[in-house]
Amino acid sequence: MRNKEIDGGKAFDWGMTAAQYAKYRDIYPRELYDRLRALGVAKKGTAWLDLGTGTGILPQNLYNQSATVVGADIAEEQIEFAKEKAKQNGWDIRYLVSPAEKTGLPDDSFDCITAAQCFPYFDRKVMKKEIRRLLKPGGKFIKIWMDWCPDDEIAAKSIATVEAFNPEWNAKAIGIDDMYDDLFDGRVTEEFTSDIPFTRDSWHGRMCACRGTLASMSEKQFAQWSEAHFKMLSDYPDAFTVKHQVFITVFNV
Q1: pLDDT tens, 216-236?
Q2: Phi, psi dihedral angles at 96 (to 5 degrees)
């Protein structure tokens, strides 16, 4: 994937992070899931589509066998992890490899569509039409974004290690401004902070599954960064928390 607005147009490939994403990015706090349930996501008798589903983290944590659940992502490697996890747990979730802009799914199919950690990567002009096409009358579109707080010490030092080996990476939270964009009328955005628990290994794994490392570094760059990052983390206890900001934007389309 390449976007001239992101990292100066440097290419990145989420498929390269699939294993790390599946293992280390299931970190959303319970409060997020509680708020999404209150908004009707995966409610009994409804149909829900999760765009940019990655390894299927949202469908896995909000799964309701009485709802129709579909997840779509452009990265085939990530979808394979999502399918395997669903199979292991007996979850009736349909996953498909598809760009968000052209899912091929039928018109008026869903009561709710979500997009977590992904909407800034989409073509928003095309997405407006696709979301309207896919939602049933009165349906909801919900964007979610979670990012480390820039004043968190461990997060700031981790960002610095990535930038040292991949200076093209823009560590700014590209999704936060997007959460306040009026894609449709009637935007409601709420936010909260949460202290997310990690160990040194799991935080390193989380950093591996970001755009600036495995998704875009050369093998040599990644090895050098990994060594430097573990060295930096050795100054901290094995268990710690990293403060994150969580954003939820709701549109009644």
Answers
A1: 999 999 999 999 999 999 999
A2: -135, 145
